[in-house]
Amino acid sequence: NASGPMMYSVDGFRITVTGRGAHGASPHSSIDPINIAVHVYLALEALIALLVDCREAGGKPYACSAYRSYETQAALFEDKLGRVRATGLDESLAYIEAARSVARPGTSEHQSGLCVDFMSDAQSTLDNGFEGTMGFRWLSENAYKYGFILRYPKDKTDVTSYDYESWHYRFVGRYHATAIAESGLCFEEYLNSMEK
């Protein structure tokens, strides 16, 4: 519930948990908060192990954004929409363009608590400059072993409907992350293949 932030320090990493409950997909959500809490806990454990092992291998990524509230996501989307409108696009095109890089509130994976954005000591902004870092190279080869996938791959933007984000990883568990890595599918393609 709405308790204060919890601080954890594990192997030199300081993690602050500030969620307002285990759910958060949207204020109108009927998600089972216990189920979500378990998955978020598993994701946090995997994230800590991933960061420790990456650091030992010489990478220096850090988690700069994970859980976001509905209100925070709404503010981020409105900010992006305003910047796109300022380019002169009409309203409907501006909305579509903004949604290619910032999820609409209620649809963001950040609201699930199961994704994380990474940055590195070698960069100062959240952008595809992360792709040039040792941390990105290590994550590209190893993230699946911890249950994480690169959520919006460069060669799958037509399928994901999102711009490429070298920094955005989603926890899906080791079984599914391994299957996705071995298949070369993106998350949407993988989910579709499971329905068949």
Written account of the structure:
By secondary structure, the protein is an alpha+beta fold. The protein has 7 helices and 6 strands, in the order E-E-H-E-H-H-E-H-E-H-E-H-H. It has helices at 33-56, 70-85, 91-99, 134-142, 157-160, 174-183, 187-195; strands at residues 6-10, 13-17, 61-65, 115-120, 148-152, 165-171. Helix 2 (70-85) packs across helix 3. The longest helix is centred in the first third of the chain and has 24 residues, at 33-56. The radius of gyration is 17 Å and the shape is globular. The N and C termini lie far apart (39 Å).
Q: What's the short version?
A:
This protein is an alpha+beta fold and 196 residues long.
Give me the count of strands.
6
Radius of gyration: 17 Å
Which secondary-structure class do the elements indicate?
Answer: alpha+beta
User: Which segments are poorly predicted (pLDDT under 50) over 5 or more consecutive residues?
Assistant: 1-29
Gross geometry: globular
Strand proportion: 15-25%
Order of helices and strands: EEHEHHEHEHEHH
Number of helices: 7
